[in-house]
Amino acid sequence: MIAWAIGNGQSRLSFDLTSITDYTVGCNALYRDFYSSELVAVDRRMVAEILTSSYANPVYTRPDWCNEFRDSRVRSLPDIPFTGPQKADIPFHWNSGPYAILLACLQYPKEINLVGFDLWGDQQLVNNVYKGTSNYDPVSHRAIDPSHWIYQFKKITTHFNSIHFIQHQTINWAIPDEWTSIKNLTIKYFPV
């Protein structure tokens, strides 16, 4: 089995999502442009938005919030299968991206492709396809510090070391130093 985790970084615009025929886990407002197998939304407002749409597949959110949404599509996010001493190890400090990757891992595919997981802001500003739209930061918002995402992804790849991860990116994307030692990760650059 091959799986895809789809984030909302702007590099995603360079990739044809309609070419994907495998299992997909998307983040937040992805449903606006692509119908994924499952969605993750850890923001209450985003869950509410998704539930008002025609998206009919499962929507995963924080366990504490599931009872707020009386809808059969809403599911509880799984427990993180490892612990650690860092703030980034606490489930509340996980956002939709790492949880989407974790959900894909729990399907136990041989390969997980990552699209739209850019990490870095665009000229110190937020890097998101949906910036400036409902339930998202304005286009002038500062870039988000990616240190938690970098740490969490490395822990995921270490824990699920039999899965091959492929990060699809633009040619000028810089891999985090912390990821250079990950043996089950390949960076695949989009054609120019």
Model description:
The protein has 192 residues and is α/β, with parallel strands linked by helices. It has one domain (2-189). Helices cover 16% and strands 18% of the residues. It is built from 3 helices and 8 strands, in the order E-E-E-H-E-E-H-E-H-E-E. The protein has an 8-stranded parallel sheet, with helices on both faces. Helix 1 links the parallel strand 3 (38-40) and strand 4 (59-61). Helix 2 (96-105) packs parallel to helix 3 (147-159). The longest helix has 13 residues, at 147-159. The radius of gyration is 16 Å and the shape is globular. The mean pLDDT is 95.
List descriptors.
eight-stranded parallel β-sheet, 192 residues, 3 helices, globular, alpha/beta
Order of helices and strands: EEEHEEHEHEE
What share of residues are in beta strands?
Answer: 15-25%
Stretches where pLDDT falls below 50 for ≥5 residues?
none
Rounded to an integer in angstroms, the radius of gyration calculated over CA atoms is 16 Å
**Class inferred from helices and paired strands:** alpha/beta
Number of helices: 3
As laid out across the biggest beta sheet, the strand order is: 5-4-3-2-1-6-7-8
How many domains? The number is 1
Shape annotation: globular
Oligomer, anyone? single chain
Helix-residue proportion: 10-25%
Whole-number average pLDDT?
Answer: 95
Number of strands: 8
Largest sheet: 8 strands, parallel
